[in-house]
Write a structure and sequence with these properties.
This protein is an alpha/beta fold and about 400 residues long. Helices cover about 45% and strands about 15% of the residues. The strands form two sheets. Strands 1-7-6-5-4-2-3 form a seven-stranded mixed sheet, sandwiched between helices.
């Protein structure tokens, strides 16, 4: 294939993907039944309406924030209290927060090597930011679709200054270890004189599977990053929590990285609203995600689909994967068409190739998903399977 033909084909693929995304979002907005309605799928007016609830979480008569004071400091104190840490620092992105955290730890340990999972967010989604920007050296403890084991950490063939654990591990299916496994992994890292950092972008919903409160989970690590938009539906933002001295140094690096933003009050207020409104409901979402997952399995079996997988079989959080033996483009078209024709969105996320003849998507259960009964799920599965090619 010539370079020109290859570029034309790539442009066509991009146009096709953009068109599918537009159809998917339109179907989602027009549907009468969905599992979740995320903030990024709403209009600006609808997003701004979130701030109508801000009066319940912060004094709106105080002066606006100025380079990280006021409401931003109030949010930092709230997060530190929830996680049981000495302090917390607001960051505009998790990518920046984790680079800064691990850069600070590298200065303290004298070792810039960070041990992490091959599927962790910095390795898959951040364009090698650790090495290109953070002067860190990532090494992969394992690539298996699970968290690293204590033995893998203990027996890793080279020294490292920090172990980073993503809880839950999103690209492996939002999976978590057991509490016992997690404590053993942390102990193994400490035996090697390494610090432990939790990538807790979705830590908020991990309490159900781990069977421990947030402060006890966060207490295992030397530092923790949490996201405000992935589960709490804030406009964006993140926090780094840990010892006061580390957080103070992190704030200096935040300034150097360009994260000392003049005003962040809309994002900070939306995060406080999320902590008040969404955080208490996450266990309910996790519990219902398990009901939905079981109904999906039963629905696929009843529809006679020869092979289908829900992973994990019992979801660890309110997000999980669905695997089907079809081409991703076929499943994307069928998912959107079923949503357009029935008004029920079974699969709202993109389908990605998971191997020859296999595709995988993610299913997210939020407040809207609580309205789905077992029979609703099975009916939607039947409608979906009926549209699949024979």
């Amino acid at each position: 294939m010539t370079d020109l033909a290859e570029r034309d084909e790539q442009a066509t693929d991009r146009d096709r993907a953009a068109g599918m995304r537009e159809r998917r979002l339109a179907a989602q907005r027009g549907a009468r039944r969905v599992f979740a309605r995320f903030g990024f799928q709403r209009t600006l007016r609808e997003r701004l309406a979130v701030l109508d609830e801000a009066e319940d979480v912060h004094d709106l008569d105080e002066l606006s924030d100025w380079y990280g004071d006021g409401v931003v400091e109030a949010l930092e104190r709230k997060v530190a209290g929830l996680l049981g840490t000495e302090a917390a620092a607001f960051f505009p992105t998790g990518t920046m927060a984790q680079q800064v955290a691990l850069r600070c730890w590298a200065g303290r340990t004298g070792n810039p090597t960070v041990a992490l999972h091959a599927l962790s967010h910095p390795e898959v989604h951040e364009r090698n930011a650790f090495s290109e920007v953070g002067r860190l050296r990532p090494v992969r403890v394992t690539g298996e679709p699970r968290l690293p084991t204590a033995a893998e950490v203990r027996d890793f063939e080279e020294p490292f200054g920090a172990l980073m654990l993503e809880l839950p591990l999103r690209d492996a299916g939002f999976v978590l270890p057991t509490w016992e496994e997690l404590t053993e992994v942390v102990e193994a890292a400490r035996e090697r004189d390494a610090v432990v950092h939790f990538d807790g972008a979705r830590l908020w919903e991990s309490t159900v599977q781990l069977g421990r409160p947030l402060e006890e989970i966060a207490g295992l690590a030397d530092s923790v990053y949490v996201s405000f938009y992935k589960s709490l539906e804030a406009f964006g933002g993140a926090a780094l929590a840990g010892p006061k001295e580390l957080v103070e140094e992190a704030k200096a690096w935040r300034h150097r990285y360009g994260g000392q933003v003049f005003q962040q009050f809309p994002t900070a207020l939306s995060a406080l609203v999320g902590l008040e409104r969404e955080l208490p409901r996450l266990p309910e979402y996790v519990a219902h995600a398990r009901v939905v997952a079981a109904a999906l399995r039963e629905g696929f079996a009843a529809a006679g689909l020869p092979w289908a997988r829900v992973h994990p079989e019992v979801p660890h959080t309110h997000d999980f994967q669905v695997w089907l033996p079809y081409d991703a483009d076929v499943l994307a078209e069928v998912s959107v068409r079923a949503a357009e024709e029935t008004g029920c969105v079974l699969f709202a996320s993109p389908w990605n190739r998971g191997g020859p003849g296999l595709a995988v998507t993610e299913l997210h259960v939020r407040a809207e998903g609580l309205e789905w009964t077992v029979e609703d799920v099975k009916s939607a599965v039947a409608e979906f399977v009926a549209r699949l090619p024979e």
